[in-house]
Amino acid sequence: MELILAVVIALVVAVAVTSGLVISGRKKKQLPPAEPPSTTPTITAPPAEPHVGEEAETPREEPRRTVEEVALPAEEAVETPAAVEDPVVAEPAAPAIEIPEPTAGRLVRLRARLARSQNSLGKGLLTLLSREHLDEDTWEEIEETLLTADVGVAPTQELVERLRERVRVLGTRTPEELRALLREELVTLLGPDLDRTVHTESPSDVPGVVMVVGVNGTGKTTTTGKLARVLVADGKSVVLGAADTFRAAAADQLQTWGERVGARTIRGPEGGDPASIAFDAVKEGIAEGADVVLIDTAGRLHTKTGLMDELGKVKRVVEKHGPLDEILLVLDATTGQNGLIQARVFAEVVDITGIVLTKLDGTAKGGIVVAVQRELGVPVKLVGLGEGPDDLAPFEPGAFVDALIGD
Ligand SMILES: Nc1nc2c(ncn2[C@@H]2O[C@H](COP(=O)(O)OP(=O)(O)OP(=O)(O)O)[C@@H](O)[C@H]2O)c(=O)[nH]1
Ligand SMILES: [Mg+2]
Q: Would you give the distance in Å from CA 43 to the centre of its chain?
């Protein structure tokens, strides 16, 4: 009898613990995201208790655990608080300011993200070059590999020509020699001497002003947010200008990034004049003695003349305060050749001074770096290698090539 009673009590306790966990698991999902949402407005209020009917709308991804799978209550009690990792998530009312990690060596840290370009471009080339007989077919395959990776026709031909010449001179080839040779030629192709500094400082005694432009969804706001983090990590004070007035959510998205590192966002009404918001952001930056003002603009199709004219106006209005120090064009690496057409049109309307190539993670088309620099004669200064807050790296040709072919 006592035994049965004990078993019943144990079961009741276990069921209580399990249902408690299920609720806390659900609660955790409803908390405001640490990552800024791309399209939906920010929800800053703490999660409400679940209401009747919510179950039906919120499918659970994880399978529920059964009683048998639940470990001892003592163990679970230790595990549960550890699940809340982010202090911002834990206390939405008073977000803690994050300290972003330094940028030095980021490309090296994120090199695994280039996995797809690594396999198809870097390792593909090495394998082909290592063939015993480098016949015409092999050279054609090498050319194809480069073209498929979006290196572009002219740079591909140049590279193949140089490789052919050097391999001929080399005679017998060891894998080490081939790697060194390929590395050198790829680095040369990327323009190792280009100035890739992101100019965030003004020559005069006012904040440096950076404007971020590009077509829809390329990663402008994310890049602006990531860049703000980098600057704050370097000890600079940053003001953000939300000159994307198409959607209220766009300003919210930028503001969320800003709040995480303590940068203020200047915003205006939805549908307001982007030029005046950009102007106000710089004015505010000057007034409060900020180091840098970052202006995020609305995504616009390069084919829409009205929108492109508007961008030109934003630039001219901001320049009433003084010249812009950097105009970054954000290009999505996965869009390939279309990115080049965008680049050309944007460069005509505003003087692009640097390119940010986003979404290089998960594309085999890493060669676009070469093509786009050639197209504009403007260096790739930053690369986006993920959606995480610190997944933006300064572009370094040497480290990039090492990531592609392995060192
Ligand atoms: N994988 C990956 N995703 C990225 C990267 N950069 C941005 N994204 C994602 O791309 C999506 C669009 O990013 P946004 O920053 O909102 O793009 P946007 O250019 O501001 O978009 P609009 O303002 O609508 O024109 C988001 O889901 C980002 O998380 C990157 O480097 N890698
Ligand atoms: Mg945006």
A: 22
Compute the C-alpha angle 194/196/197, nearest 5°: 135
Task: Give all strands of the β-sheet with 354-358 in edge-to-edge order.
Answer: 264-266, 238-243, 292-297, 208-213, 326-332, 354-358, 380-384, 392-394
pLDDT in tens, 208-236: 999 999 999 999 999 999 999 999 999 99
The H-or-E segment that residue 330 falls in is strand 326-332
The answer to whether the CB of 218 is under 6 A from ligand 1 is yes
Task: Tally Cβ neighbours within 10 Å of residue 328.
Answer: 25
The separation between CA 353 and the C-alpha centre of its own chain, rounded to angstroms, equals 19
Angle at 200 between CA 195 and CA 205, to 5 degrees: 125
Distance from CA of residue 407 to its chain's centroid?
Answer: 25
**Identity of the amino acid at 112:** A
Amino acid residing at 241: G
Query: From ligand 2's centre to the CA of 11, what distance in Å?
Result: 52
For the record, the structure tokens of 281 come out as: 């952001």
The model's pLDDT over 353-372, given as tens digits with 9 standing for 90+, comes to 999 999 999 898 999 999 99
Dist. CA 152–CA 329, nearest whole Å: 19
Q: How far, in Å, CA of 129 to CA of 147, rounded?
A: 16
Structure-block tokens of residue 363 = 């594309």
Q: Is 217 in the pocket of ligand 1 (CB under 6 A)?
A: yes
Alpha-carbon span 350 to 353, nearest angstrom: 9
Handedness of CA 305, 306, 311, 312 (dihedral sign): positive
Residue 235 CA to ligand 2 center (angstroms) comes to 25
Mutational test site, ligand 1, from 39, 387, 391, 395, max ligand atoms within 8 Å of CB: 387
The H-or-E segment that residue 356 falls in is strand 354-358
H-state helical runs in 83-118: 87-90, 106-109, 115-117
Listed residue (179, 177, 182, 191) closest to 160, CA to CA:
182
pTM, to two decimals: 0.77
- Residue 97: which pLDDT band, with cuts at 50, 70 and 90? confident
Cβ–ligand 1 contact at 220 (below 6 Å): yes
